[in-house]
Specification:
- This protein has 319 residues and is α/β, with parallel strands linked by helices.
- The protein has nine helices and twelve strands.
- Strands 1, 2, 3, 4, 5, 6, 9, 10, 11 and 12 form a ten-stranded mixed sheet that branches. A two-stranded antiparallel sheet has the order 7-8.
- Helix 5 packs parallel to helix 6.
- The longest helix has 18 residues.
Length: 319
């Protein structure tokens, strides 16, 4: 319980730093702020589906004592199922009814395909101007607390089905650097999905998904250097690196995280603390033990950087 309480306090402090005015303390409980959640539509997407999904969210938030949830679109790039693309337009009319409980990140539907489709060497001034104008438009919208979830390297996972595509782009892509400038100017964080590849490696057999919409390649190129260049580019841009503590490649160890946090003061990490399946808990990259307790090395890392971690459940609420 002490670990959970400490992490809840760290979450509150970190959200206060990332998004001023969003967090507040309630004397009756430590306010858990879930910074990473999605909405999944089982039927036809429309305002009635969003209303139903938001009601599901509020019911679960009340049950679990979640003070606030930050909702965000799914990563969207080349290979994305054409039925999925969406952004803030679907959510804003409904979220205006729950401004104290739900906030929104935005941008993947409008901006994601642009940086995936445009190779750095082919970018024109018009491409940059168009991207920046769209990012500026999003930054000025009401109820927007940041940009996300943006894919940089996003593996296709067998357990997510055939419509879960592989997406990959250079972390220091010029349009992502441009997004960092816009985010810094408006003091908005960027939530990123980057499956870490410290060195070139083959995709583990357990992650091969050959029937996917866009399957994983057999070999993955290292991306840590590019990610660090993105973090170094504009120190005023705050990045929230999603899914620490449970990620498919199991490369994001305590040691790697500690080094990145020391080198990059604008880097934050979002814990995904879900039950580990089978033997995945044995990995040093898994934050939870087989019993669901936070492992000591991870607890020590949180104590070392108490204002750099948040909790994002990665829950998919449905209508």
């Amino acid at each position: 319980m002490r670990t959970v309480t400490s992490l809840a306090c760290a979450t509150l402090l970190c959200v206060s730093a990332l998004m001023p005015g969003l967090a507040h303390a309630d004397p009756e409980f430590f306010p858990y702020i879930d910074v990473h959640a999605h909405m999944e539509f089982r039927g036809a997407r429309g305002i009635s589906s969003v209303v139903a999904g938001v009601q599901t969210m509020i019911t679960e938030m009340d049950r679990l004592k979640i003070d606030k949830t930050i909702l965000m679109p799914l990563p969207q790039g080349v290979g994305t199922d054409v039925r999925l693309p969406f952004d803030y337009e679907e959510f804003l009319p409904v979220l205006q009814r729950q401004p104290e409980r739900i906030r929104l990140l935005a941008g993947p539907g409008m901006l994601g395909p642009l940086y995936f489709e445009k190779q750095p060497g082919t970018l024109t001034q018009d491409d940059r101007a168009s991207f920046k104008a769209k990012a500026e438009h999003i930054a000025k919208l009401p109820f927007i607390s940041g940009f996300g979830e943006f894919a940089i390297v996003h593996l296709s996972l067998p357990q997510m089905g055939d419509m879960h595509p592989y997406e990959a782009v250079d972390a220091d892509h010029p349009l992502l650097l441009l997004l960092a400038d816009v985010a810094a100017e408006h003091n908005l964080p960027i939530d990123v999905h980057l499956d870490l590849i410290p060195e070139d490696m083959h995709v583990p057999t357990r992650l091969m998904n050959p029937n996917a919409w866009d399957p994983n390649p057999q070999k993955l190129k290292k991306n840590q250097d590019g990610f660090e260049r993105l973090l170094q580019y504009n120190r005023q841009a705050k990045f929230v690196w999603a899914h620490v503590g449970m990620e498919p490649l199991q490369n994001r160890t305590v040691e790697i995280c500690r080094g990145l946090l020391k080198r990059h003061p604008n880097l934050y990490m979002s814990f995904r603390l879900q039950a580990n399946n089978d033997m995945a808990w044995r990995s040093p990259a898994a934050a939870l033990s087989a019993s669901g307790a936070l492992k000591r090395p991870w607890a020590e890392l949180i104590k070392e950087f108490p204002d750099r971690f948040v909790v994002g459940s990665d829950t998919f609420y449905t209508d």
